[in-house]
Amino acid sequence: FNSLNHDMTLPEFKFIWYMEYSHRMWGRVVGLAYILPAAYFWRRGWLSRPLKGRVLALCGLVCFQGLLGWYMVKSGLEEKPDSYDIPRVSQYRLAAHLGSALVLYSASLWTGLSLLLPQHKLPETKQLLRLRQYAHGTTALVFLTALSGAFVAGLDAGLVYNSFPKMGERWIPDDLLAFSPVLRNIFENPTTVQFDHRILGIASVTAVTALYLFSRKIPLPRRTRMAVTSLLAVACMQ
């Protein structure tokens, strides 16, 4: 309000405040949903030794996620005497906050499903090992694409070009490498950040489609085939 948004009304500020407040409260509820049952199960002796290590790691990651959230928001409230741009949080901290959330969610889902569903005993064929490796590679690519989306959000890079598949009138925009040194463009140039996100998004959809087509050539359990098909459907919808 002091530096830029002089005409902001109190109701407009309250909307932002309640968004932030609800997010924090929800995060604390998630933390309690982890820690309280974990302490109860631990005390009752219901956790195996390997599961105890995983539970400790998940609870620690929940706390780390909250700490990262505070660290991220703090960057949006710091005075920047050399910049009169729109106040925003650091895109680096935003990407770290989103990345840790994705790791926490994936680890939680993996742990829950491994307890609920018995593991299939499949013969370790060459094709199956290749499918597993390709699935891990696709996972890494999707994770990287999501992180690049955090940089798009942090820099408002989505506002630079709103046409697809070209960016404006060109396939490769003129200001793609406008910053110096060149490496800065990947993380701080809104045009490059949007360009990278587009390329990574297309690559992710291509990788998921290839994973699906490759899986069709291998005899897989029904549950696995449903997972691969669902992955393709969600990738196309995304």
Automatic annotation (TrEMBL):
Pathway: Porphyrin-containing compound metabolism; heme A biosynthesis; heme A from heme O: step 1/1. This is COX15 protein. The keyword Transmembrane helix applies. Keywords: Heme biosynthesis, Iron, Membrane, Metal-binding, Oxidoreductase, Transmembrane, Transmembrane helix. It is a multi-pass membrane protein. It is found in: Membrane. The gene is Cox15. One of its GO terms (molecular function) is oxidoreductase activity, acting on NAD(P)H, heme protein as acceptor. One of its GO terms (biological process) is heme A biosynthetic process. It catalyses: Fe(II)-heme o + 2 A + H2O = Fe(II)-heme a + 2 AH2. Pfam families: COX15-CtaA. Its cofactor is heme b. The chain crosses the membrane at residues 25-43, 55-73, 93-117, 138-161, 197-215. GO terms for cellular component: mitochondrial inner membrane.
